[in-house]
């Protein structure tokens, strides 16, 4: 059955069928060929129960928040402000890509949206200033992945929903690794550009007075992050309520910057509907597939396979990490999460590992999948924003950052407190 699911998933995805539909089709196939019960009778109830959750309402709110920030021009102002503060480092404007991605990750909750935001704003600057296209593009793709790690994160909300874990604790757990990855990206960029100065472009210094004036454009985003995440951590609001507060704050920011208009709102709403519909179709389809797989005994089959290897819990964990790395090459990231979480997370808990910690470890592996071919979504987003060049250039540019993600995976396994310290102290 495992072979059927894997081959069927790859075959259907290769036909460019939407991921949500693929998951439903696989579920129907499992029901027909492997299940002893007529599971189709429960399809309606499964679709309703998997989508009828107040927690999932946070998803369209966070998507709308990011759409408004991008379309109102706030992103452009933020990028220009960070350019004045970080372009003196070896690598110049590449650090502004990472810094902007980090800041928008703290508000948008989506990796693809973050990558699209920074790529749209940054690419014209790269071409004008003569930056090496590989490293410049790779930094944007890698920086965009921080959107699903630094809270608030849509993927962490989905993980919490599927595992019945505390979303505030997941947000706390993701903060240090997320900021740590951002710092690691800055360090590796500086090292690469010191070794190969031709890759980094011109280092620019701005008058201190001009740098101070630029801070005005950063304050609203920082306050927005503090309002969203702070209200969750303090217990004043649930993630859904905090997302609604964030949307209200985004309207205020867009109005203050003069970017509020009916056409902008119309485009933001339309974009929100499209993205949310895609996410929910995947969540519902995966819920149905997981229901059929569980009924057909896949969870037991996978558990027997892993325990039959006779490995220690640590080595079993390394096998699971390897499985995620391989699957990340071929399966879209949200689909990979919702399909595997109900099967893998109970096994991880049985091995004695913390579910919150494993959620952060999984997110790092998912981040790697976003920038590794052939299905890395951020690669396509960044390439789509470029006016020339090949996808291979973007792929090569992400290699230093993939190395940093592998290092973070190793660090999380060796030192779980990187993720668990804040939840243990602040909750």
UniProtKB/TrEMBL annotation:
The keyword Transmembrane helix applies. It is a multi-pass membrane protein. Its main location: membrane. One of its GO terms (cellular component) is plasma membrane. The chain crosses the membrane at residues 6-34, 54-74, 135-158, 170-195, 215-236, 242-265, 277-299, 305-326, 333-349, 355-380, 401-422. Residues 7-418 form the TRAP C4-dicarboxylate transport system permease DctM subunit domain. It holds the Pfam family DctM. The keyword Cell membrane applies. One of its GO terms (molecular function) is transmembrane transporter activity. It is found in: Cell inner membrane. Keywords: Cell inner membrane, Cell membrane, Membrane, Transmembrane, Transmembrane helix, Transport. PANTHER family: C4-DICARBOXYLATE TRAP TRANSPORTER LARGE PERMEASE PROTEIN DCTM (PTHR33362:SF5), SIALIC ACID TRAP TRANSPORTER PERMEASE PROTEIN SIAT-RELATED (PTHR33362). Belongs to the TRAP transporter large permease family. The complex comprises the extracytoplasmic solute receptor protein and the two transmembrane proteins. Part of the tripartite ATP-independent periplasmic (TRAP) transport system. This is TRAP transporter large permease protein. The lineage of its organism: Bacteria, Pseudomonadati, Pseudomonadota, Alphaproteobacteria, Rhodobacterales.
């Amino acid at each position: 059955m495992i072979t059927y699911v894997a081959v069927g998933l790859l075959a259907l995805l290769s036909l460019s069928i939407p991921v949500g539909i693929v998951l439903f089709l696989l579920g129907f196939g499992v029901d027909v060929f492997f299940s002893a019960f007529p599971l189709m009778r429960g399809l309606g109830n499964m679709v309703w129960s998997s989508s009828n959750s107040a927690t999932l309402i946070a998803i369209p709110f966070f998507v709308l928040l990011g759409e408004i920030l991008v379309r109102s021009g706030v992103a452009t102002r933020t990028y220009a402000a960070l350019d004045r503060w970080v372009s003196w480092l070896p690598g110049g404007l590449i650090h502004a890509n990472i810094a902007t991605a980090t800041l928008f990750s703290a508000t948008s909750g989506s990796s693809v949206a973050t990558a699209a935001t920074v790529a749209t704003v940054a690419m014209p600057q790269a071409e004008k200033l003569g930056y090496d296209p590989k490293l410049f593009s790779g930094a944007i793709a890698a920086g965009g992945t921080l959107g699903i790690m630094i809270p608030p994160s849509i993927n962490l909300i989905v993980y919490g929903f599927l595992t019945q874990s505390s979303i505030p604790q997941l947000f706390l757990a993701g903060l240090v690794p997320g900021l740590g990855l951002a710092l690691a990206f800055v360090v590796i960029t500086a090292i690469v550009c010191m070794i190969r100065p031709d890759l980094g472009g011109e280092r620019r210094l701005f008058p201190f007075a001009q740098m101070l004036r630029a801070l005005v454009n950063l304050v609203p985003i920082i306050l927005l992050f503090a309002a969203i995440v702070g209200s969750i951590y303090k217990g004043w609001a649930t993630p859904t309520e905090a997302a609604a507060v964030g949307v209200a704050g985004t309207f205020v920011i867009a109005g203050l910057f003069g970017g509020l208009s009916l056409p902008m709102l119309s485009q933001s709403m339309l974009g929100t509907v499209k993205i949310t519909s895609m996410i929910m179709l995947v969540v519902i389809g995966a819920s149905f597939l997981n229901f059929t797989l569980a009924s057909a005994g896949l969870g037991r089959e996978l558990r027997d396979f892993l325990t039959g290897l006779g490995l220690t819990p640590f080595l079993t964990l390394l096998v699971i990490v390897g499985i995620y790395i391989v699957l990340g090459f071929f399966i879209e990231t949200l689909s990979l999460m919702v399909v595997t979480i109900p099967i893998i997370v109970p096994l991880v808990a049985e091995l004695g590992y913390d579910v919150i910690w494993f959620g952060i470890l999984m997110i790092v592996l998912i981040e790697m999948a976003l920038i590794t071919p052939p299905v890395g979504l951020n690669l396509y987003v960044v390439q789509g924003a470029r006016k020339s060049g090949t996808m291979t250039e973007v792929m090569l540019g992400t290699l230093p950052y993939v190395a940093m993600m592998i290092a973070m995976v190793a660090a999380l396994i060796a030192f779980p407190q990187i993720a668990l310290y804040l939840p243990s102290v602040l909750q």
